[in-house]
């Protein structure tokens, strides 16, 4: 049967009926269709840009580094991303496989205080700076190998944290205790959580996995001592539901971020129309730029804790409607430029502030509705809040609403219904107290016309 290639206009018509992930799949398999695909407006319900991955309507596209010849008779081992044992984040590795969180600090691991500053909570504090520490770590592995069968006897128990939990939940608690107690044997007061033989075997498998991960953490240092330079590859994978497919494999040349940037460029650059996104989440900590020439019409924008507003300003289509919701962090570690157009025009502005003074930020906001999540309640009890009220008594801010949310608040505030404060501009400041489910306690301040 003879077949004819689909023409340009016909291809555009077909792409207009395909969901975003199907469009990307067709474009990836047949590069000749990319021009037609990029000529049709792309509409995405929810898009997430994370450090090394992109999530399009629940389907994840990820770049990761794999050591191809890590261990004999074992499959390729992933070396980038979050380590399951110590919680550290790796972007790149050197020729031996030593992660950048070590090489970028002259071969020394950061102190526990540095780790806490990065808001990481390592489950296993592994010190690998010296040969003595490496030998100690090897001894830990040998200890695990020798006693994990012994200590998983049902006669032993870890802390019975949840005596009322069902048996199936006991394994999860066991795994939690394994992480907490990596440096000792479980004592005789521990482990009634493994209720049956099935749980016992599952726990043994879990310990074998941990031992394997420990061995692989040591492997780069063994490579260095023996001057072995293993082969590394970058795998671009697609995770959709329960299936995972490798879309592309390339040799690793020392820069994973370059591969992530190329993936973003392939998906979003050179489009004839702005990408329509209902909800855009950007949660990256890595310094990866947004795709060139990308423009988006966004309904809701959610910026992660370390994401600056200037990073996303170039991709927001100036001719699109104002954002319905905008979520941003404003802290000393994340200075934000707040006078940008997309911030001023956002219909609902949600600010998360963990430190620093609040008043200068508030006084410059012109949004009609502002929700401010505070990590402390001092602002609502000190002079700054009084200054804010006095300012709004003399300035014209009709219909503007501020909502301050804290984890806890003095119970005495609940004894009052609301406070009404007349202003000099025929308006009234209404201050009310309320409890917000899953968030905490809130003070709502509204400026309304006097009636």
From TrEMBL:
Protein name: SAS-6_N domain-containing protein
PANTHER family according to UniProt: F-BOX C PROTEIN-RELATED, F-BOX C PROTEIN-RELATED-RELATED
